[in-house]
Amino acid sequence: MAIPWVTTVARLILGVVLIAAGLPKFRDPIQSVTAVKAYQLLPESIATTVGHLLPIAEIILGILLVVGLLTRISAVLGGLLMLAFVFGIAWAWANGLKIDCGCFGGGGQLAAGQEPTYLLDIVRDFGLVVCAVWIALFAPGRLALDTKLGLGKSEREND
Asked: Which residue among 47, 107, 114, 141 is buried most deeply as judged by most CB within 10 Å?
């Protein structure tokens, strides 16, 4: 059956996106903090901490998903992270903020004349939530370390 392969593709999509989102923020933590603060959702000190820890969490979750280790837990955490992003972007939109989401680095106030891409960002992140739910339901998929280490269903059981 195709379900294990769909799970693997969903794992790779969510994992690669998380890594791609985390790396630029990890390389520029000051910009990551700026992006988190731009949402005006968290107190300054908490926003600073989140700005520093977020890229690390994204990269770790992304790697775990790509290799299929602790797959179900990683999918749930990744899905919750994506839901938090959807909420944050919707919050910014509803409150009339004109910011770059900071999803793949950058972030903060947009320059004059620039318009935010909130709807596109929300649709993308919600699509990633769907991937996370699928993975959580049908983990670990094919080519997963969970299977090799006896932490998940065998590929034969997953058929």
From this structure: 141
Inter-residue contact 128 to 20 (CB < 8 Å): no
- Domain ranges across the chain: 3-148
Number of residues that make up the chain: 159
Q: Tell me if the pTM is above 0.90.
A: yes
Q: Are 132 and 82 in contact (CB under 8 A)?
A: yes
Nearest-angstrom CA–CA distance, 24 and 106: 8
Compute the distance between CA of residue 92 and CA of residue 47 in angstroms, rounded to an integer. 15
10 Å CB burial of residue 132 (0-12, 13-18, 19+) is: buried
Identify the residue whose tokens are 């820890």: 53
